[in-house]
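DATA SHEET
Item: assembly model
Revision: 1
Owner: S.N.
Input lines:
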Amino acid sequence: MKLDALSADQFEQLVTDELDLLPDDMIDGIENVGFTTASRPDDGSLGLLGLYTGVALTRRGQYGHGELPDHIVLYREPHLRISRDLDDLKLNIHVTLVHEIGHYYGLDDEELHKLGWG
Amino acid sequence: MKRVRVTPAGINLVFTGEEADLLASVAEQLSELLDGYEDRDGDPALERLLPDGYRENADDAEEFRRFTQTELVGEKVAGARGIADALKPRTAKGMASVTLGHPEAVVWLRSLNDIRLALAARLGIVDEGSPPPLDDNGYAIYIWLGQVQFLLLRAVDR
């Protein structure tokens, strides 16, 4: 399959599958997080693979009073651009998910990079 | 609420067993409250959910009520029961995982809002300036319902 032809639905399915494949330890600690996909970042660029918005667990005060839920979005076109084939795409989606979930747990970009997660 | 995600099959919501029990219970309470709406004049939660159509004229308001309310109440009761029913099955890990198509997700949004309005009326929350209620538990549930609404709305509106 040519990756260029991968539809929004197919990308959504891959993200769903990769989320299901993440280790329980990583998923079980997640509270109040929304996962969505979009074709590109709001600025239309292709350089950003995913985005976490929210207040990381390590920076929270009294949880549950007034904070909006966290959100992780994965961008389809930037992933397609850097992926050679379907397996590579799956690996890249996996890395992006771990990276963004890492932010949720309070790791910053530098720490995640050192650990090999993007 | 553990997580909400958008899948090709619909919007998937995952709750812990405890959260699912809680949401099912407040949904049941809403349907019971609405079932008895004819006998409960002056209940603040019902007034919030079923406001008068004509505030100036009691007769017009009564007529408007007669023609529109049965259907409206029926829809609200069905929506709340739908939530309670959907939350009953549990996964192997004791979670409730519900996948909603777009029309169902919209019904859930309406119903979550009804539950939140009824709770707000009970807690005395009228607008953003209302003081935090004394009932901490009720207030925590109110905030939590808002977060569920927020996550679901963003998934519907992506």
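QC remark: Helices of chain A lie at 8-21, 24-28, 76-82, 86-104, 109-114.
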